[in-house]
Specification:
The complex is a heterodimer of chains A (310) and B (365). With 310 residues, chain A is mainly α. Chain A is built from twelve helices and no strands. Chain A has one domain: ABC transporter involved in vitamin B12 uptake, BtuC. The longest helix of chain B is centred in the N-terminal third of the chain and has 19 residues. The radius of gyration of chain B is 22 Å and the shape is globular. In chain B, strand 9, helix 8 and strand 10 form a beta-alpha-beta unit. The chains are: A mainly alpha (310), B alpha/beta (365).
């Protein structure tokens, strides 16, 4: 394999990794507050279609990104309404959100299908940095959303571990009644986390239609939202570990087709299985480890909180 | 009280599913020229600029040509009860022709054809028929594929051409082989490297596969996929692109060279006319460029006049039968003889093609 191919692989790994990372980070924030949201795929689709359509109308890709995040957040709040305010089953509500999101996105985006993009988020020009061999193309020629993903990862990590809001948010996912007793509003914390998760999923969707494949068609998310859900488990609910996982999963996605150009004669069908096999493998490892030590998942994950009940 | 919310959630799910399968309707006709009502069941949205778009163009053109009433329903998944439900619904509304445009509808259509012997069922891309009211339709896409290979072969300077392909099935392998034979008719040393994506439609993977091939040195990208993502990568990288399904030049105006394309109008007109006349035979129909079902899109302006003349000449020769893309001598990828000199591959061998020709890099899985 040539140097160009190797650089291309790593560049694609970072670029796919950022896509998965944004969505996974959103899911991580939501789960840290105790709300499992399986609607990532639907929220991504909504972000993807609204981002693309706003770009078509306004030719402003940044505005498109912001609107996609807002739509993602609002859409996630449907899940918030059901699960946080009304205490509904989180798995059912999340799955419904995915189905609703995919369908609604297809419906809303009917007239945008097959149209050339109105605006795209062009790669950031880092000047001389982009010319550094290897590092330049891999790290300093990416679209702005990649740097946004890294920024979000750092901020999330900081807020969760170093601020009182982060502590309260984690508390809402570990022991909601304790947080409630300490004077915080569990509902507000959880709704905020769910909305934040939706915003980041929306950004991931917009990344698809504004950068990676600047077009809208049904099914453009192609199951990436589910990989993001798995990635949170893979990363043991830690932003840093999730980043490593995102690079790994992104790399596998890029490797799937590239292995063929490297002359490795593996069945393409086997190759496309790798990311899923790995996800299953990680789930197995995690559940075996959980026997010996306390689970790394938030203790109250998936549990509705109602003040009068215990 | 929880049950109520579960009900609410279920309602949301139902709304979502309804939205996913939106329907569209053709205009009513005064019915003077024909009383036939033909329904089309599509696997994707007509706005995909590709496969379904081409079928929908054919539908509206055939409607105009025959005066028949047509309707369609889009994005109907394969392997579910949806196809049969929509088909029955159309039949209840008096539709006498049902056309399904995806391979996976085949067995449903065969069963429905037995159940409704008075309704004509025509299936695009399958291989089954019942010799009465269920037939299949497809096109000899390898003919324009060969021509597009000539254009690609003239456009490469690195001698490396990339091909982003969905699945290693005979239809796709046949296309890659015909394309490669076209390429090597003008650039005998050029190679065509294949990357399998294992998906018909995943823009992110299709685009990235094109990027992988460009990274590996390809300066022309061809494809057998349903999205335009490969072309967008080619445009961004400054290399050339041979698209598929329809003229996709709007998506990558500088990269676009040409495209082997579908034109279903004549065939759909024929099916509707046969249904009206009661002559539909439920046979296998594999149409050619001469029949008009497949063609080559206009070639980019910067391609030389010599090459355009050569393509026109070969097109003429294919149409009048004096030339066949799979006429010998053709070697297989491993150097063994695939078609001996003086021989031409028959339809059966072409339909079951599982090996690459010489000049293709990659494995057939």
């Amino acid at each position: 394999m040539s140097e160009a191919s190797m650089i291309g692989l790593l560049t694609a790994a970072v670029s796919f990794g950022a896509l998965l990372y944004l969505a996974a980070l959103g899911e991580l924030i939501s789960e840290k507050a105790g709300i499992l949201n399986l609607g990532v795929e639907g929220m991504m689709a909504m972000g993807a279609v609204t981002g693309f359509m706003v770009a078509l109308e306004t030719e402003n890709a940044w505005l498109a990104l912001i609107v996609a995040m807002l739509v993602g957040a609002l859409f996630a709040l449907i899940h918030g309404l059901f699960t946080v305010v009304l205490g509904a089953e989180q798995v059912v509500s999340g799955l419904s959100l995915t189905i609703l999101g995919l369908g609604l996105a297809a419906f809303v985006g009917k007239n945008a299908v097959g149209r050339p993009p109105g605006a795209v988020l062009a790669p950031v020009d880092w000047g001389g940095l982009s010319d550094i061999p290897w590092v330049g193309p891999i790290l300093f020629s990416q679209s702005p959303i990649v740097y946004f993903a890294i920024f979000c990862g750092v901020v999330t990590s900081f807020v969760l571990t170093r601020t009182s809001t982060g502590l309260a948010l984690r508390g809402a996912g570990e022991s909601a009644s304790t947080v409630d007793a300490s004077g915080h509003s569990v509902v507000q914390l959880r709704l905020g986390a769910v909305a934040m998760g939706g915003a980041l999923a929306g950004a991931a969707g917009a990344y698809l239609t504004l950068c990676l494949t600047p077009q809208w068609t049904e099914g453009v998310t192609a199951g990436r939202g589910w990989i993001a859900v798995a990635l949170v488990i893979f990363g043991a609910w830690r932003p840093g570990r999730c980043a490593i996982g995102a690079l790994l999963f992104g790399g596998l996605l890029a490797l799937k087709t590239r292995l063929q150009t490297f002359g490795v004669d593996l069945s393409p069908i086997l190759l496309s299985m790798i990311p899923y096999v790995l996800t299953i493998g990680v789930l197995i490892v995690i559940s075996i480890r959980a026997r010996n030590r306390p689970s790394s998942s938030p203790a109250a994950l998936g549990q509705a909180y109602r003040r009068e009940e215990r | 009280m929880f049950k109520k919310w579960k009900l609410g959630v279920a309602l949301f799910a139902i709304v979502g599913m309804l939205a996913a399968f939106g329907t569209g309707c053709g205009d009513d006709d005064d019915g003077g020229s024909s009383d036939v009502k033909a329904a089309f069941i599509y696997v994707g949205p007509p706005g995909d600029a590709g496969w379904t778009w081409a079928h929908d163009q054919g539908r509206s053109c055939a409607e105009e040509a025959t005066g028949a009433t047509t309707s369609y329903v889009e994005s109907v998944p394969e392997g579910t009860a949806d196809f049969a439900n929509y088909a029955r619904d159309f039949i209840d509304q008096g539709y006498g022709v049902i056309i399904g445009t995806s391979f996976g509808y085949m067995d449903d259509m065969l069963a429905l054809a037995d159940e409704y012997p008075d309704v004509v069922f025509d299936h695009v891309s399958g291989y089954k028929n019942n010799e009465s009211n269920f037939g299949n339709t497809f096109g000899r896409m390898y003919e324009p594929r060969y021509l597009s290979g000539i254009v690609a072969g003239s456009a490469t300077s690195s001698g490396k051409i990339g091909y982003v392909a969905a699945f290693p099935i005979p239809e796709v392998i046949r296309g890659i082989n015909a394309f490669t034979l076209g390429v090597r008719s003008v650039a005998p040393e050029a190679t065509v490297e294949v990357v399998w994506t294992s998906t018909w439609f995943d823009p992110a993977v299709e685009g990235d596969s094109a990027q992988a091939l460009i990274d590996a040195g390809a300066d022309v990208i061809a494809m057998h996929q349903d999205s335009t993502a490969a072309g967008e990568r080619a445009e961004a990288a400054g290399v050339r692109w041979v698209s598929y399904n329809s003229d996709m030049s709007a998506f990558a105006p500088n990269a676009f060279l040409t495209a082997p394309v579908w034109d279903w109008c004549n065939r759909y007109t024929e099916i509707i006319n046969q249904a009206a006349a009661g002559t539909y035979a439920g046979a296998s129909w594999w149409g050619s460029m001469a029949d008009g079902v497949v063609d080559l899109a206009p070639i980019a302006d910067d391609v030389s006049g010599d090459i355009k003349d050569l393509v026109a000449e070969k097109k003429q020769a294919i149409e009048d039968g004096s030339f066949h893309p799979f006429s010998g001598p053709i070697n297989a990828q491993d150097g063994s003889v695939l078609v001996a000199a003086g021989e031409t591959m028959g339809d059966g061998d072409m339909l079951g093609m599982t090996t690459f020709v010489e000049g293709v890099i990659g494995s057939t899985g």
